[in-house]
């Protein structure tokens, strides 16, 4: 099954001379596949140079910052592709030199850790770059790749358990899926995070992720995590930030109007970018029938929130995302705000036990003009597609 990525045409359109197109995303999301598909779009008369940052020792010329050396490699080249660009020191300055010296050159750079690459290219390439984030496959991409709604729904349990990474969706053997997911987690933890500033505490990372895995849909307070793990709040904040920047987790903040003291706004919720990664962290790939109702609810909320966020980023929707909760325990799972218009969504996996008309009274009272919709396993495709 060939899966067409939504952002492919957009990337191709913005790949222009004098600009650097940056594609972020965790390892195994398909960045290399996209770059290969892009290079195939060029005819045989075009000259392409491809560099892999994981093999940077072979490409010392790129870090030379020597214009004469660059000319020997890049004169007459139409497209320069740099995979895992964050592995090259001072890559932002290097790209600025190259873009200035070769105005007809198109540049595509990919990176699996935004904390290194974004920091390096930000200032040198202000106004001269396009950037995209590639996530695991989305439901919309499955549908556009000619999967019917029935086929997608039939695979919902597998998606909740094993997630949406391309390799996972293309593999039928569950044992192979498990091995792949464990490798993805280890790759992101050890290769990307622990190599950053020589961090050397994998046990802390694993423990933190396990705590987050059991708090999906719940407020996360940094000081409580710090107390549980016997480290400082500053350390937890640093690790949470790094986990976001290697695309393992995604933070959603609390929603509050200016004058309502009953609303919780200072804590955050964290979602895993992929359900399979979440289950790999706790090493549990059991069927839904063997899981408690609360955990099924966590898997459902994690899955549906991330599918919504993928869609909105891919289709350039400008909404801001929040959760809403009061100190009296009334809550809304997802609040979207676009140009002052507020939409509220509640997520329940089982449509038979969900009350489709149950709107929290405090929400209804304070936000009477906001729309409200309950999303369950029966109507979610209509909401996402």
CATH topology of the largest domain: Arc Repressor Mutant, subunit A
- Helix and strand element order: HEHEHEHEHEHHHHHHHHEEHHEEEHEH
Shape: globular
| Count of runs of 4 or more consecutive helical residues | 17
Unreliable stretches, pLDDT < 50, 5 or more residues?
none
Q: What's the count of strands?
A: 11
Could you tell me the mean pLDDT? 89
Number of domains: 2
> Per CATH, which architecture of the largest domain?
Orthogonal Bundle
User: Quick one: CATH superfamily of the largest domain?
Assistant: Winged helix-like DNA-binding domain superfamily/Winged helix DNA-binding domain
Helix/strand-derived category reads alpha/beta
Largest sheet: 6 strands, mixed
Strand order of the largest sheet: 7-6-8-9-10-11
Q: Tell me what portion of residues adopts beta-strand conformation.
A: 15-25%
CATH structural class of the largest domain: Mainly Alpha
Helix content: 40-55%
Q: Between the first and last Cα atoms, what is the distance in angstroms?
A: 20 Å
| CA-based gyration radius | 22 Å
Descriptive terms for the model:
385 residues; alpha/beta; Rossmann fold; Arc Repressor Mutant, subunit A; 2 domains; six-stranded mixed sheet; five-stranded parallel sheet; 17 helices
Plain-language structure description:
With 385 residues, the protein is α/β, with parallel strands linked by helices. It folds into 2 domains: 8-133, P-loop containing nucleotide triphosphate hydrolases (Rossmann fold), CATH 3.40.50.300; 139-384, Arc Repressor Mutant, subunit A, CATH 1.10.10. Helices cover 42% and strands 16% of the residues. The protein has helices at 8-14, 31-41, 67-74, 91-101, 114-121, 139-144, 149-154, 156-162, 166-169, 174-193, 202-213, 222-229, 233-245, 275-281, 293-314, 361-366, 380-384; strands at 20-24, 48-52, 79-83, 106-111, 129-133, 249-254, 268-272, 320-325, 331-338, 341-347, 371-375. The strands form 2 sheets. The protein has a 6-stranded mixed β-sheet, with helices on both faces. Strands 2-3-4-1-5 form a 5-stranded parallel β-sheet, with helices on one face. The protein is globular. The mean pLDDT is 89.
């Amino acid at each position: 099954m060939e899966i067409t990525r939504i952002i492919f045409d957009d990337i191709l359109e913005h790949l222009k001379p004098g600009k650097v197109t940056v594609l972020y995303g965790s390892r195994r999301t398909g960045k290399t596949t996209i770059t290969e598909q892009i290079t195939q779009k060029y005819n045989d008369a075009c000259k392409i140079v491809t560099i892999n940052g994981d093999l940077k020792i072979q490409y010392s010329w790129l870090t030379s910052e020597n214009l004469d050396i660059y000319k020997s490699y890049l004169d007459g080249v139409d497209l320069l592709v740099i995979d895992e660009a964050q592995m090259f020191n001072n890559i932002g300055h290097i790209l600025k030199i190259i873009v200035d010296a070769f105005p007809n050159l198109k540049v595509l750079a990919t990176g699996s850790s935004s904390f290194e690459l974004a920091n390096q290219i930000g200032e040198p390439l202000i106004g001269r770059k396009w950037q995209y984030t590639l996530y695991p496959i989305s439901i919309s991409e499955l549908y556009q790749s000619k999967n019917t709604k029935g086929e997608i729904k039939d695979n919902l349990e597998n998606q909740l358990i094993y997630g949406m990474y391309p390799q996972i969706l293309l593999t039928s053997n569950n044992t192979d899926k498990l091995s792949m997911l464990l490798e993805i987690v280890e790759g992101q933890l050890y290769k990307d995070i622990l190599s950053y500033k020589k961090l050397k505490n994998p046990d802390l990372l694993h423990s933190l992720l396990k705590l987050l895995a059991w708090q999906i849909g719940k407020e996360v307070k940094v000081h409580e995590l710090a107390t549980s793990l016997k480290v400082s709040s500053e350390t937890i904040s640093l690790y949470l930030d790094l986990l976001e920047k290697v695309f393992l987790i995604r933070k959603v903040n609390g929603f509050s109007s200016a004058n309502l003291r009953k609303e919780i706004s200072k804590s955050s919720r964290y979602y895993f970018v992929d359900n399979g990664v979440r289950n790999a962290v706790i090493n549990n790939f059991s069927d839904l029938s063997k899981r408690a109702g609360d955990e099924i609810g966590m898997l459902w909320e994690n899955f549906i929130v991330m599918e919504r966020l993928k869609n909105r980023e891919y289709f350039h929707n400008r909404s801001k995302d929040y959760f809403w909760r009061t100190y009296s325990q009334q809550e809304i799972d997802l609040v979207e705000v676009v140009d002052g218009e507020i939409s509220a969504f509640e997520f329940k996996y089982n449509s038979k036990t969900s009350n489709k008309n149950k709107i929290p009274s405090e929400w209804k009272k304070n936000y009477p003009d906001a729309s409200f919709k309950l999303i369950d396993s029966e109507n979610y495709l209509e909401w996402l597609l």
